[in-house]
Amino acid sequence: MAATPEPGEPKGKPFKLLGILDVENIPCARDSVLYGSLGSVVAGLGHFLLTSRIRRSCDVGVGGFILVTLGCWFHCRYNYAKLRIQERIARDGIKNKILYESTHLDPERKPTTDKNSS
Hints:
Keywords: Membrane, Mitochondrion, Mitochondrion inner membrane, Transmembrane, Transmembrane helix. This is Cytochrome c oxidase assembly protein COX20, mitochondrial. Belongs to the COX20 family. Its main location: mitochondrion. By secondary structure, this protein is mostly helical. The protein has a domain at 27-100. It has helices spanning 29-51, 54-100; strands spanning 16-17, 21-22. It has a two-stranded antiparallel sheet with strand order 1-2. A hairpin with a 3-residue loop joins strand 1 (16-17) and strand 2 (21-22). 12% of the residues are buried. The model has no long low-confidence stretch (mean pLDDT 81).
């Protein structure tokens, strides 16, 4: 029986696309490549069904792959960066809430007025 790796242990060799793109560890890489390959098939097959030109259909398929992959990549990375910024703002807000809680600098604390000290 093969030994299963523990959750904290690294798995085997990571899958790299073209030897440079680590699909497992880079956010958005897997989805972008999958959608790009689907776009390639749709664009190439659609062009072939319309024109019956094999070489041009392959060129259109490669172009479809590049366009769809880059489009999905930039869209996903933009949303990923936006999410990271929101997380950082929330983290700073929680840190400030913990830091200033029950002090005179707490923005939620209402100022008390002393009527006896007049």
